[in-house]
Amino acid sequence: MFVVGGGNSAVEEALFLTKFARKVTIIHFEEDIHCERITAEKARNHPQFEIRTETVVLEAIGDGIQKLLN
């Protein structure tokens, strides 16, 4: 599962999503995520979490949420 963004809301939501996904990847276009220090530490130390910085999403292809749920 991917979450695009590196602020508090994105990182907190991504941490929440680790309850439902085997792996969650944050994609952020800047050098580092910009959230509260404790939230960043939780993200960096979480075994199901990956942070990809200096990365831009060019396209997302899929057939909707139904595919994810089935």
From TrEMBL:
Residue ranges of every copy of the Pyridine nucleotide-disulphide oxidoreductase N-terminal domain listed in the record: 2-64
GO molecular function annotations of the record: oxidoreductase activity
Pfam families recorded: Pyr_redox (PF00070)
Protein name: Pyridine nucleotide-disulfide oxidoreductase
Superkingdom of origin: Bacteria
Keywords, ordered alphabetically: Flavoprotein, Oxidoreductase
The protein's required cofactors: FAD
Family annotation (PANTHER family): THIOREDOXIN REDUCTASE 1-RELATED-RELATED
